[in-house]
Amino acid sequence: MIRKEIRLSGSGGQGIILAAVTLADAALEAGFYGVQTQSYGPEARGGASKAEVIISDQPIDYPKVTTPDIVLALTAQAYAKYCDDINPGGTMIVEESLSADDCPESALRVPILGTAREVGKEIVANMVSLGVLAATLKKHIDKEFIEKSISKRVPPGTEELNIRAFQKGYDMIQ
Amino acid sequence: MIRKEIRLSGSGGQGIILAAVTLADAALEAGFYGVQTQSYGPEARGGASKAEVIISDQPIDYPKVTTPDIVLALTAQAYAKYCDDINPGGTMIVEESLSADDCPESALRVPILGTAREVGKEIVANMVSLGVLAATLKKHIDKEFIEKSISKRVPPGTEELNIRAFQKGYDMIQ
């Protein structure tokens, strides 16, 4: 059975919900079952927020992420907050410029924010992130599905910019 | 304890996820805990889809909607599919032009699609729907929170259109 629990995290306004919804859409098109969730609470206001996706080849009974297989963090606050329940064999992906004392030692450090700025706007950091996640999941979901979902989900006229950011993120991971 | 389980449903492309995320954002701002979820599976492809929000004044342990208090349906397929587990005391809201045999008798029938077209574009049916939901929830969440969330979540330049659609939906419910 394939079950992947994926957590995207950062601050509100970084477009992580859109990235997560896009990933879930693509998983559906690729034939998987999925659940996409965000939780809200007073602790989230003005601080770290996360969006989660569960992808499975079986119907998903329990929709809660318990031990994420992949955690991606775009801010120090999100990194510190959401790193600690990661599956020991899982993949921690963190924006290169960040560090956090209480997180597991091994993490994939990637220049997500810098790359987004290079592509043109820091606002596409979510799509760079999605590219990194797509490369991490490429054994299960062909990137074409994610590209198609991006084109469907981003505001009309912004498809090219967002796909370019996605590709840059994808290419970071060999 | 306040716990409201809300289900928005329709077809993919009708913007129901955005409406649900916007509602959850507003609930957070209003001081509630929330969980916002969509499930994906082969049965969803090309057909009915739903987006759910749980709003509570207590931390939410179980993130699954089991007995929705409010169900809103924009298509006949979604109506037929998602009406049957509604809380017996709950509110069924359905696009006026639809009917379904196996759904509970009493439903609030509202001209959501027609109103969206009047406002200018059928694509704002999700915001008309959000207005209807806001009016239904007004004892718990002041509509101002939802208007603020709309302005933050819709593509720049479309705020006025979307707020107008929202207000039309809100005004339908006395």
Automatic annotation (TrEMBL), chains A, B:
Keywords: Oxidoreductase, Pyruvate. It comes from the Bacteria. Residues 12-171 form the Pyruvate/ketoisovalerate oxidoreductase catalytic domain. Pfam families: POR (PF01558). GO terms for molecular function: oxidoreductase activity, acting on the aldehyde or oxo group of donors. InterPro entries: 2-oxoglutarate_synth_KorC (IPR052554), Pyrv/ketoisovalerate_OxRed_cat (IPR019752), Pyrv_flavodox_OxRed_cen (IPR002869). This is Pyruvate ferredoxin/flavodoxin oxidoreductase.
